[in-house]
Design goal:
This protein has 5 helices and 9 strands. With about 230 residues, the protein is of the alpha+beta class. Helix 2 packs across helix 3.
Amino acid sequence: MHRDETNNRCDKIKEPADLFRRMRFTDPEGDLAVRIAREALDAHVEGRPPRPFSAPASFEAKGGAFVTLNVHPSGELRGCIGYPEPFFALLKSIVKGAEGAAEDPRFPRLEAGELPKVTVEVSLLTPPQLLQAKRAKDLPKMIRLGADGLKIAQGPYRGILLPQVPVEWGWDAETFLSEGCIKAGLLGDAWLDDSIRVYTFQAEIFSEVEPRGAVVRRDLGAGHARR
């Protein structure tokens, strides 16, 4: 995620709930998350109001989420925007992520004709937790590849890589850290600097099998595009 993709505003709604640290979202909730993201995406691109959804209490608590768009069937990345911190209610994080993904600054703005050609993926995130290592070089040992995502922070610089990324690219933990630093606009070995803060988070990932099709819980062992 680019530096300008993290929104630091905070809505006065429910505080982050423990469920985002320990609760496993059900498949119906994951399906709903993707349906909400798809509707928000379609409505934003088509310039119309989105139809409302009835959401469970878990979507009212503050929670982070990323929405990823991939070209079907190639799996080429078409946009990925999200909110790693629990600033908003989860429902709002999903909606804003979907709208943002349509305007990911790395790509041209998504056009209406592309909507039937992209799949929507939603990653529901736990709050980032700071890794506290006695020595920076011990950080790779603290990262669980295939389970942890990374947030790299130094001053105004921020870089986010979802848990999917190292699995998809076959990275080891040191490469994961280096790529996270580069994503933040830092040198690849910046994670060895004591001023760098490294956070991990986890994600439950749900994705359309095909555009506007069935939604499945994603197996991190089956990747298709870089985030």
